[in-house]
Queue: 3 jobs
Job 1
Amino acid sequence: MTGEPDGPEDRLRRFATIWSRAVFPVTSTSLTRPELEQQLLPLARRLSDALKARTFDAAAGQTVGVALVAAHCTDPEALSRSLDCVDAYLVLYCGEDGPQEALRTRSARLQHAMAAGYAGALRERTLAEQEAISQAALNARSTVAEALHASEARFRAVFEGAAIGIGIADLEGNILQVNGALLRMFGGSEQGVRGRKVPEWTHPEDAPQVWRLYEELVRGEREHYHVEKAFYRPDGTALWTNLTVSLLRDADGRPQYQLALMEDTTERRLLNLRLRYEATHDALTGLPNRTLFFERLEKAVSAGNDQRFGLCYLDLDGFKTINDSLGHAAGDRLLVEVADRLQSCATAPGEMVARLGGDEFVALTTGPDTEREVDALADRIMNALVTPVRIDGRELTVRGSIGIVEGPAGERGPAEVLRSADITMYRAKSAGGNRFELADPEADARAITRHGLTTALPAALDRGEFFIEYQPLVHLGDGSVHGAEALVRWLHPQHGVLGPDRFIPLAEHTGLIVPLGRWVLEQSVRQARQWQERHSDAGPLRINVNLSPCQLTHPGLVQDTVDILEREGLDAEALCLEVTESALIGADDDLLKPLRRLAEMGVDIALDDFGTGYSNLANLRRLPVSILKLDRSFTQGMQQFPADPVDLKIVEGIVSLAHSLDLAVTVEGVETGAQAEQLRILGCDTAQGWYYARPGPPERLHELALVDATG
């Protein structure tokens, strides 16, 4: 044993072995079973070649059927066992890696051709035997009669014992003989079968070519054909068959009879239809599912002739709350009721409703005027949801958000259409829900870009696509550089440099803000250490680093900060962590505890964007902050002269309050000299803004600090 897989020839021999074992017990022959196997091997090879041929050749199957008769396999059971063997093992051993469904269809057609060839050869053999008997009648009349009887008996045994229906008719369509299997297919009444001509067996499901092929055969222009055909039984039910019709010629080659072989496929067809239905419909609601909907949508968006389509993408508002509070059984009953209501909204031609999954449904309309129809469809859906649903004695209010996409066919694919509808639906939900919105290409583009940035974030940190710019913090008293705020940027391969407003919310949503924030802190502390080493004579330069709300709740915040400071050799007093005022509104002691620990170590805590969170000023006493960063909205009125007196009073009051609490005040967004001077007069401590310098590389701060040191 080499361990290598069997080759095609080995598998072919195995198939021939199985075949010989199946038919040997019912074959009247003096051959041994191995000798019979050698006779069947070329027949197996012929079937294998026909199975894998580019085009189907029924002659191969017919030749095999004829050869079986020639090998004395004339017992009815021999044909039945041969067909069973081909059906079970031909594709398995000879199909190799080809498309299984197509190979099984080809195998079935070969079986019909084998049966046709077998029946024709057996009949010709019978006729030949009859002719031989007639020729010998003058010398051995009794022997001829006995042989004739035996020959006819063998043919009759095959004819009656066959598992498939067999019928013989003349060329005018008169049915001459039918076997028991065919009678059973049609209810068992021979009168009901033989009393009708073949052309009368029409059915509405007949393919257009069925009767064209029949006419060609009875005219002698075709030897056989194979079709799937339905018949009516006497009780009106449908009988589906695989039908093979072959032309039988006389000794001179003239068309004489037609032979029909029928396999009852009704149960198989019903099973396939059932499986198809289950595969394309939602088990809970009975609506078409995602698979069937995509088939319909693909047809709708690819149709021509000035056709349009409209799509409503519905998601129920607050459905999770119902599932969580009342249980999934109640949620399922609600979905069934919603499905029934939606189906009643889409009854016009070209309209359909489907369930995509969960509480998401879609309604599709097609035609030349969908611009108006899709709005009407959305209105009907919203109105259908108004009436509460009663479940287990409770009345449940149903609300939904709908995204609408409408347009001409041929411009977008189904996936793009559904994505646009999904984005639009979430836009309606974000606007409060219980409404519908029309698709907006610009909004779609922003959402797609946002999604692309979200998925690219994790790899961007690993690839080193982030960098930090620094904006100086200037002491308003003497104009010296006090330090700098670290501002992270993303150098995106496609979108260029992105500011933190484009990706920080996404990082917070995905949880990447924790490793990203740790990286920013590490890089900034290292940079602050380098500044101190290069400009020790300019005084200590402080570094301000922003903390997001997610970082505040991360259990490793304090330890990470301590580790970074110690590893880089920077004193805690040179670090300031900025926290937005909104993040600390209503903060409990557990949230404030890590900030207090950092403050006790000497790290300054700055309350960023002060004045935008509408917090109680009395809370300042309990927060571990040492710096207030005044939001730029309070100082914009100071950019022009004279300054807004209201703004002056507000800033003056905040500065006075901060200083009374031993808090320093930093102002953001300083853009003019007049603004800077006014803030100095009001007593603000430090400032930052474009008036001093825009955010830039760390070398810029080197230069500014050097200028301050040299005067």
Job 2
Amino acid sequence: MTAWADHEPLPAVVGRAVEHEQVTGLLGGPGPVTLTGPAGVGKSLLARAVLQEHPAAHPGTVVRIACWDGLTADELTGALRRTAGLPPAGTVEELARHCRAHRMIVLLDDCDPLLHACAALVRRLLRTEPALRIMATARRPLGLPGERTVDLAPLPVTLGEGIAGPAVELLAARTGPAAPELLVAVCRALEGCPLAIELAARQLDRTTLAQLAARLDADGPLHFSGPSPTTRHTSLHAAHAAGYALCSPLDRRVWARLSVLPGDFDPWLAQCVCASSDVSAAAVGDALERLRTASVLECVRDAAGAPGSGTALPPRYRLPRGARDFGRLRLREAGDEAGALRRFRQGCAALAAEAQITWQGTGQQLAVRLVEDEQHHLDAALTRPPLDAEDALGALDIAVSLWFQWAACGFRREGRAHLDRLLPLAQEDTALRARALWLAGYLAAQENAAAAEPMLAQAWQAAVMHADADGLARIAHAHAVLALHRGDTATAVACLEEAARHSSRDPWFGPGPAHSWALLALALAPLDASRARTAARRAWESRHADSDFWLHSTILYARALIERTHGDPAAALRACRKALVAKKLIGDPLFIVGARTMLAGLRRGVRTAAPVRPTGGEPRWWRRADPDPGDRPFFSRPRTGP
């Protein structure tokens, strides 16, 4: 027979076939086996499922005690002796020999509140009977020599394109026939947590699956509850509260403050958010590792060296949604939410500034990668309502620092939306606001002339008031872009010559003189080959860094346009191909569409050996082919999501 502390029937175990086989194999070998994982992942359920089948091959009794059921460390040995059929009073050595003689398997379930006592008990049992089979479940390993651990992760939601994963299978088993897209939406919002899926399914007696999916997709804490054999499994809140109670006061503060981070993060950003008068920056790193060991944090990337770079990448962690919701409630109760949110936005401002400097300095691909890695945080810092005027300036600073993402990488409409929302919140006449006005006008100049002109006019007034010569040059550059989109090449050339002659004092922000020379080469290419070639050469000579792919691709495109109009189509084809390759490294659909259009024409011309000359009605890359584009983001790169 099998002796359990309770005799409730086990629900079906879904999606754990690999882990089931792994645990079964480990149980036949020496040393204890520990199932670890976050709250609600199904550790106890899998352990009991494995052990219910195990006695068929190895006759004996499973002796289980639940350590979270009010036991104390002093009562642990007596409880195990009682379950094994021995008097509570007696030695551990006697218990070990009894279990070995009757071929018993010991299951120490939910060891977390008595972790050290359980580890000491297992050590003494195995010292007496090394062949004794012992299994434990806990959110962290027992830390014993020879311990074999099996870490359970949340169930995958999908296994590939159009293939439902075990999480969907589990929900479908509880709901019956349902629309697959709704099942996937619910499981994705619950991040594949088996307990969360079980509790959510119990809500379907009073709500529809579509309503449930919509509610889960909205931001806000998950408070699903329902009947359960254990109190901590009646709700997600209770499951995380049980683990929270076992953390040290410092780890609790770090957990709560990390809840303002919406995605995965590295230790540096964690320090920015968590460090304050009561938590030192040096203590945060150790707290992260303790929370990871306790299965509160997920480690999405271990510390490792970047291939071929000789540099080390820091680890990245993630706080799952259930733990994040619980931590946010604790943060509000402590009155610390505003401080954590302010520190979060300040950290994101530092990230954006680093990306801006990297873009203009050591490498544009590195800058793009940095922004992509931290996109979820930057989005949150830009969209969360500011706490006050100072906090609004911090959000605007982030939007301005990311000018290259909006202007050079193609996310024009996204950048304009952020600036349009944040500019009214920062009415004070500052140099930062002047830059934001220029950036909004520069982005609008490529799509909406009516919106661009008033913003550029305000930016000009601010630049004059602040005696900002760099700002005036950037405004001239933006007016040139506006003129090119209107087809006014003469005005564009005059504005670009003015901007190109300027010696920039701040090379870290905006298109500098080199980009004005490159754009001048593009404007002159159909008109004057000699002046266009000179402008392209000046652009390359005045570059700030050799790794400026944005500049390089523009120069190559200008050379392709010059050769196509005045020289060798084959040379134009080679330059256009190189321009397209360089531009694809950083994006920008506006430029890529123009380069592909030119490339197609050049290929036809080279194949037929006919001269390739532009016709009068041929659209340039800076002008729309559709005279009435409506609201289509033709020139703006859409965000594809996580």
Job 3
Amino acid sequence: MKTFSSWLASPWRRSAAAAVAGALPVLAFPAPSLWWFAYVALVPWIALARTAPTGRRAAFDGWWGGFGFMLAMHHWLLPNLHVFTFVLAALLGALWAPWGWLVRRLLGGAPPRGRVVAALVVLPSAWLAVELVRSWEALGGPWGVLGASQWQVTAALRLASVGGVWLLSFLVVLLNVAVAVLLTVRRARVPAVTALVAAGAVTASVWAGSPVAEADGRARIAVVQPGVVAGPDSADRRFDREVRLTRRLVGQGVDLVVWGESSVGFDLGARPDLARRLAALSRTTGAEILVNVDARRSDRPGIYKSSVLVGPDGPTGDRYDKMRLVPFGEYIPARSLLGWATSVGEAAGEDRRRGTGQVVMDAGTGLRIGPMVCFESAFPDISRNLAEDGADVLLAQSSTSTFQQSWAPAQHASLAALRAAETGRPMVHATLTGVSAVHGPDGGRAGPWLGTDTSTTRVYDVPLAHGTTPYVRFGDWPLYAALLVLAAWVTTETVRSVLLRRRPAPGPPAPHARTAHGSPARPGH
């Protein structure tokens, strides 16, 4: 029977194994949500890369593992982008090629303890560097950041208030490297155990020392989730359903009503009848209504997605135009080069226009709200900026109706917990078709989620808090620290390489001295 090592001798089998290993961490995210699995999910991938016969093969193991991770994380795009989903996964997967090379460089063979200690810091730092690069909007944004798998772990949310989701990613990778060392490098178990103990000590100290978001007020916020409305005239019929659902709020003393993304399919300037109906709803409910308009604007060219606040007298003038657009869904990067994607999937036929700045709105009762649209809730800097600008509540208006039966709605909703914990501000994630969710300033749930099978209105008593978390104060410091670690390691390796090249080669051995009789001299003579 062939051993597993001999089976991996085939490059294609090894590549397939790397892709499967790379896909495993997705099980830690919703919908499976096996959060604990994240602590060991990278171990097979690490074990494979460290045994690569060459550095080049280890880089391919990293690439194929990244391909598997990206494809599994975005598998729900397949019905829409078709073959282009594989192209995107392959392009993004290449970001992990250097990481795979580093795994072999630091842990390959029988590494000395010094290299193992370096691996426990350098490999998590290199992972953060990959997450930083792929967080660029044009590459898909920070969807599926490894630390986001810990959205329901109380201790992890406390850590997020200190270093954001980036600190969680670093610690999760550190744990995986330590476990991989324990299982595969017996002579280095002491550093691995030390790393595990240190990670536990850091978690405990942060738990004890970080400020806790304490509620100092409450707001009653209603989420209107109309459910799936398809077919002809869907925009009009959806609006009518949202109006009916909102009327249920009369007499409930709500402070704000939130509709989901693309809840209004017409520009309110071009449809004053809709603006009047919304104003009437605001008067009867006693609350302003935050809607989301997805339409060609009447006052400027182009299609915008905009959060618009409507009060008793109509639109208040507070408007936020979405700034970070979904690649291929709302615009096509380098359309002249990649425009062919519209022929093989449901990519954007026309690019949406971008907003120019974030907005904090006054909801009329002294409640200051910071709106985001769709996958903008995946970007930690957007919510952090809103908290710095004085938002009491973070709001994300979203729609994942295209992906109703996939893992996408739950993955998206889970991000609200992280953004809330990072900023110490409650967050409302309101969608057209589910999953809608509300999380308090500590990241914990502030009421039940509204699933994808629900068409309803729900009022949440949302706790408010106004402290400043370390993450809001100091920003993305784990990313900067990771880049410094990588720079220090590269510098050290470069200096060591230069010194080795300059060291003079040992000369030939000196000939033995001979006596007058011609025989070699012996010691002591």
